[in-house]
User: Which sequence fits this backbone?
């Protein structure tokens, strides 16, 4: 529309010039003076400048990728590692931080975001089913493993017999914490836990076969374990809570979870887009940047095991 207006104004100026030249060849008494006002010239220039600005704005918008995230570690990874990689490729990354798990998905569904990065496949699939969303995972990025932390000991081998070890008290993370202790050789097995409903995590404190070092197992709310760590000899702490308490920087994990292929997929946080945008230019650029060596190195060096790279494809 603006191009049409510019052509009309230009045509008007040309017509005025022709009339002026014609008038110069006429008799003096019939001379007609035709002038083009400064306002008309300014109007033509304004139309052209406005159109140029609009085209530039459109180009800038096309080179911006807007991603919704949770604060830690997702926003940190994008701001401190991914943004620079995208900038080198000519892209501008805008990070939108959400404090909940619902809005990043509904905003993506509504087209307000180009992608989001905060969730596992299980959560995304549940949201699609429960809320009628149409979201698709395009790239795995990281896992927040549970770790064994201590403010008193510098290695697993230093933890003495009879030490008090805290684990989360919710069912999923209780089993996860106990399995971590088995992985790291602090327990021999889970004994009858998970088989006999009368056997609790605390019961393992008295199971000499499963727990030959006589560790006292105590369950606490997962979020409170970092605060309780000074009163414990060690604790199994979820990655997000460890990060929130700055434990990786102050008391790095003595050991972290190990994952097989199945659990790696289940625990990985993915970049997610709306269905139909899997092969868009923005999605491809974001995936390439987030799976780069620079981002992998940042995760490994900055989080010291409380976050680990998991550059896997969706299953």
Assistant:
């Amino acid at each position: 529309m603006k191009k049409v207006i510019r052509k009309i104004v230009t045509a008007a100026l040309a017509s005025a010039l022709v009339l002026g030249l014609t008038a110069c060849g006429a008799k003096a008494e019939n001379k007609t003076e035709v002038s083009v006002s400064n306002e008309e010239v300014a109007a033509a220039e304004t139309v052209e400048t406005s159109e140029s600005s609009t085209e530039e704005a459109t180009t800038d918008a096309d080179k911006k990728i807007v991603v919704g995230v949770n604060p830690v570690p997702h926003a940190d990874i994008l701001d401190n590692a991914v943004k620079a990689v995208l900038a080198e490729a000519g892209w501008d990354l805008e990070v939108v931080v959400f404090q909940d798990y619902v809005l990043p998905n509904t905003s993506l569904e509504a087209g307000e975001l180009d992608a989001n990065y905060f969730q596992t496949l299980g959560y995304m699939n549940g949201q699609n089913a429960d809320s009628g969303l149409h979201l698709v995972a395009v790239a795995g990025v990281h896992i927040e493993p549970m770790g064994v932390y201590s403010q008193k000991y510098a290695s697993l081998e230093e933890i003495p017999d009879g030490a008090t070890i805290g684990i989360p008290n919710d069912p999923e993370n209780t089993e996860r914490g106990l399995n971590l202790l088995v992985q790291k050789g602090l327990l021999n097995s889970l004994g009858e836990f998970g088989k006999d409903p009368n056997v609790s995590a605390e019961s393992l404190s008295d199971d000499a076969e499963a727990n030959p070092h006589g560790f006292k197992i105590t369950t606490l709310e997962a979020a409170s374990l970092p605060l309780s760590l000074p009163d414990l000899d060690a604790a199994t702490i979820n990655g997000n809570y460890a990060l929130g308490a700055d434990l990786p920087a102050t008391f790095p994990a003595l050991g972290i979870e190990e994952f097989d292929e199945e659990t790696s997929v289940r625990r990985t946080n993915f970049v997610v887009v709306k269905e139909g945008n899997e092969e868009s230019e923005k999605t491809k650029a974001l995936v390439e940047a987030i799976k780069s060596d620079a981002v992998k190195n940042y995760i490994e060096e900055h989080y010291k095991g409380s976050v680990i790279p998991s550059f896997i494809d969706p299953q």
Remarks:
- Residues 164 and 233 are 5 Å apart (CA to CA).
- The mean pLDDT is 85.
